[in-house]
Structures are given as structure tokens and as C-alpha cells.
Design brief:
The protein has 2 domains: 6-43, no CATH class; 44-147. The protein has 148 residues and is α+β, with helices and mostly antiparallel strands. 46% of the residues lie in helices and 22% in strands.
Length: 148
């Protein structure tokens, strides 16, 4: 594995964790000694069926990017966001289907995010649920508060 710091192509594995469909490896460069994390994924193909009927390949990075935007300036660790994406990805691939509706993925993300941070949940829900106005946002906040 090539070191992202110095470019050297030899590192040693310090820790390996299986997170379902992904293997997380903590590595240390043998030349500069800096540590970095790599992720190995099983290459399976699942298509996401969008609301308008389009299909596109499942992309964990797209989910992670949405979570990063929703959780900007919130006290949520990168590891917590990765765990959410890992759980969603594990569910998607465990279904054993070639296609999965985007609604299922969005609802999973919302459910996990609700447990991690309510503000990030509302930010994500505003876009995902296409809340049209402040009244709709207020209703979602009220629903969130009443379920706590």
C-alpha cells in the first residue's frame, strides 16, 4: 500500500477490523512512520432506483458526502459517519438483490442519523424528504421531539 504522506510503497498492518462488507486496516509506513487507514470492499454490484426511475450504481461515497454536509460544524466524528455508511451498506448488500430503491437507503440513513445527532438529522431530512417550507420542517422537528 502506498503511503499517502511520503509515497513509499511499503507499510505494515497494525490492526484489521471486519465491518461487514468492508475491511478496515490501520497501517504504518515503514519509511516515514506515519499511520493511515485503508478500507477494502467486496466488489458487488447493486443499482439504486431513484425516485424518477433512473438507476445508478450504489455509491457509499455519495451517502458519506451527504452525511458530511448534514453534520457540518456538529460534534460528530468521522468514524460515526463511517459507521452509519457501513451499516447502510451492509443492509443493502445483505438483501441479495440487484436493485434497491433510494427511498430505502434514505430512510436507513435518517434512522441512524436520528440516533447520532438531531440537528444533522433535520438538515438531512430537509433535503431528503424535500420539506417544502418552514411548517413542514417544524412538523418534522415536532415529530422528532415527540419520539425522543
Amino acid at each position: 500500500m502506498i503511503c499517502p504522506y511520503c509515497g513509499y510503497n511499503d507499510s505494515r498492518v497494525l490492526d484489521t477490523r471486519d465491518t461487514g462488507r468492508t475491511i478496515r486496516r490501520r497501517r504504518e509506513c515503514r519509511r516515514c512512520g506515519k499511520r493511515f487507514t485503508t478500507y477494502e470492499q467486496v466488489a458487488l454490484s447493486v443499482s439504486v432506483v431513484k425516485r424518477d426511475g433512473r438507476r445508478e450504481p450504489f455509491d457509499r461515497e455519495k451517502i458519506l458526502q451527504g452525511l458530511r454536509i448534514a453534520s457540518a460544524k456538529r460534534p460528530i466524528s468521522a468514524d460515526a459517519l463511517e459507521r452509519i455508511v457501513d451499516q447502510v451498506e451492509e443492509y443493502v448488500f445483505s438483501q441479495g438483490k440487484a436493485e434497491i430503491p433510494s427511498k430505502v437507503i434514505g430512510n436507513l440513513v435518517l434512522e441512524h442519523l436520528r440516533q447520532v445527532d438531531p440537528v444533522a438529522y433535520i438538515r438531512f431530512a430537509t433535503v431528503y424528504l424535500q420539506l417544502p417550507d418552514l411548517d413542514a420542517v417544524r412538523q418534522e422537528i415536532d415529530r422528532l421531539i415527540s419520539s425522543s
